[in-house]
Structure formats: structure tokens, C-alpha cells
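Z., the sequence and structure:
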Amino acid sequence: MSSSKTNLCRILSGVLICAIGLLASAALASDLEKLADANTGFAFDLLKQIAKEQPKANIFISPFSVSTVLQMLDNGAAGTTKQEMERVLHTSNLSLNSLNAACKDLNKSLNSQTNIILELADAIWYQKEIPLKPDFVSRNKKFYGAELEGVNFDSPQSAKTINDWADKSTHGRVKDVVSFPFPPATQEVLANAIYFKGKWMDPFDKKATKPQAFHLADGSGKKVPMMRKSGHFSYQQGDGFQAVRMPYAGGRLEMVLFLPATNSSPAKLLAGLNNETWQNKIMPLFGERPGTVALPRFKIEYNISLNDSLKALGMKGAFTPSANFSSMVDGELWVSDVRQKSYVDVNEEGTEAAAVTTVVMVNSVMLRPATPFEMIVDRPFVFVIEDNQTQSILFMGVVCDPAGQGAN
């Protein structure tokens, strides 16, 4: 072959390799978008369900942590159990391989931030005698970086091992995520931990924090420490609410704060929120605007079993002895409890938040500049902490009483 033909072949091969690489990158980007959409849809479904069950409570959850641990569990599910889980998680349009790869790349992107602290961890503990299927083990190690360890659930040391992991993974903010004794015939515990600490890009001045009345849903009020700052914000006034985006250092993570109108409520606001409205009717309508934001300083510690909420959303079979987790182990295995413990502290400097989710398994448009606004968050409100690059909702909550039960 002549040198010119050889060079031509090399050029064509290079073009082909580049084309394949571009197609692969496009497919990966598409899967990441599908995963972000799925996680957002699940996040709003879950918060709405919990708010329906606890209408007067302060709520703080990490839907990202819940979806992650359930996506790990999905690698062991089969049949109707798997179909139900994927419908609830909104991931039916992703193959298992695509879902796992997208989860790995999403976690890598989230972990790459340098201006804030954001740490993710996954782990699986299993009864030593149980032969977990190799594919289930390898997928969770490869795509989720999960630590796997055989333990004896009949020994209190197993609970200590899991609780020490949770304590370490959340910098001491979430403790005692499991208790001993475990439910009879416990065979496996899957867990996800998420820890976030970030300073506001524009902190509140502590000298401006003053006691101010917060109006409770029943019409009564109480004094709470109210932080306040003025400046230019990404803001919108929608149908029945005000909203403002408050970035953390680095600009990727932000708190999106929603204040329902006086004739509305967090429940009414949440009723209209889902992935489609979030992506198409909420986020595009923020615009730069001068104004003042007053926000109560608050701290919440929250603990919830998610069994009833997940069953209400359609994930029923996983909680019954007829559950199909045959891709995980041979024999019967089902979910006994899905639980999350979480912590958030919002103050003048920024936000610290953490959550651990455990699964215990047993067998048997931009606005134009306008006049300054004022958004005084002095009644029940909703807040979301999201990564605006991947559009991943990491935490979300409803504050009915900043100084009430679960708040300090």
C-alpha cells in the first residue's frame, strides 16, 4: 500500500474513532439528563407524600440519598419488584447499565467541587453466610464505589460498625442510624450517606439578625432569629409564591427558597411541582432583581421511616415476602425498613447538611429589571438545595416552625 493510502486510512480511522467518541459522549449526556429528570421527579413525589403524611411538621430529607440507595438495590431486583421500583424512581426509560453508568458519572461530577464540601458514600453489609451474586457485588463496587463487608447481625458489633460508618461519613452529624437488635432474620443493610457544608457566596451579616415574628399555620406566632440582607438576587414572583436562588461559594450549589403567598401553603405549592414544572416553568423564570431577603436561622434533625411513603408511591412488592431480589441472592429476601436520618443547620455563614439512608433487608424565561422586592420568610416555607450544573436536588424540606419540634 502506498504511503498516501496509508495516511488516508489513518486519517479515516481517526475520524471514525472521534465520531464514535462523540456519539458515546452524546449518549452519556442524554443518560445523565434522564437520570437528573428521574431524580427530580422522585424528589418531588417523595416530599409531597411525606408532607401529606406530616402536614404540620418540619421536614428535611435528602431525596438524592434515597434514590441512590434504591438504585443500588435495583441491581438486585427482578420481575415485578424491579418494575415497581423503577416506576417509583422514574428510571424505567434507562437500562440498568445506562442507569449505573449515569449514577457513577453524576457522583463523580458532584464530588469534583472545590469551593464547598460535598461527600458521598455507599456501603453494603451482609450476613457472612449469604452468598451474594457476583454481578450484584461487582456493579455496586464499580458504579457506586460501595464498601462491602460481611458481618454477624446477631452481634451488637454489627450495629456499631454501621453506626461508626454513618458517623464518620457525615462528620458526626448523623448518628445511630440502626439499632440493635436488628429485625429477626436480617440478612443485609444497604446505606448511602451524603454530607454538605458550604458558605453563602454572599453571607448574611450577623449584626442584621434580629428577633422577628414567624407566623404559624394556625394563626399564632413566635419570635425567631431572622437573618436579613439586601442586594441583587435571582428572583421570581410566580402564581402564589415568591422564590429566590441563594448561591453557595463556587456558584454550583444553591438554595432555592420558596415562600407561598399568604392565601397559600407549602402543600398547595408542592401540589404543582414536579420535574416538568421545575425544569420548564420554575427555573427558567428567575431573573436578576434588587431586593431584600429575610430568612429565619434554623436547625432541624429529622428521622423518618419511608416504608409507608414508598408504598403509597407504588413500591409495594419490595416490602413483602413475595419480593423478587433474585439478582442479589438465591432464596427469599425482602425489604424490612427504609429509613433516613438527616440534619441541617442554616445560619448567617452558610449551610451544613447531612443524611444517611438505610435499607434493612430480611428474608422469609429571564425577568426584566423591576422595582426592588421584599421577601420576608415569616410563615411556613419550602426550600431546596440543588446542584445547578447537573440539576440534581440533594436536599429539600418544609419549615412550618423554625423553633418547633425538630428545630433548634
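The chain has a mean pLDDT of 91. Residues 234 and 288 are 5 Å apart (CA to CA).

Let me know what you think.
H.
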